Every structure is written in structure tokens, then in C-alpha cells.
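Q: What would this chain look like folded?
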Amino acid sequence: MNDTDQRLEQLAARARNAADPPLTEMPFGFATRVIAAAAPASDASALWSRFSLAALPVATVATAVCLWWSASTMSADAQDLVQVFIQTPLFP
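A: My prediction, written as C-alpha cells:
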């Protein structure tokens, strides 16, 4: 027999005789530690929501200023077009 075949036969025989590893359960408190470690990750989402809520009034004021500034330079035709858009009902 070939040397490689002989080694494969030995390997297969050892694998047949090997004992199955014992089934282990999670260590006590492991799930609690995993959840506790994941808790600080949720603070990042709270931080982003706080920043977005703080940015909302700033964006509203910036939009109002831009509209006020651009309304003074609009021509009469553009103002008529804006009035048409405002008065047109929007249906979903």
C-alpha cells in the first residue's frame, strides 16, 4: 500500500475510535454578561437621536431664513407659481 494510503487509514481509524466531546452548557451568568456588554452600544443610538432632535430646530430656522431671503428676490411669475403650489391640494 502507498505511504499516503496507509496514513489515511490510520487517520480514519483514530477518528473512529475518538470519543465525542462532552456537551457543555453556557457558563452561569454568561447571557447576563453578554447583555450587559451590549447595553453601552445602545447609548450610541441614544446619542444620535439626541443630536438629531437638537438639529431639528436649527434646520427649521435655516429653512425659514432661506425661504424669507429667497422670497424677496422672487419675480412676480415665481410668486404666482408658488401660490398655485400652495393652493393645490395634494392627494396621496
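The mean pLDDT is 81.
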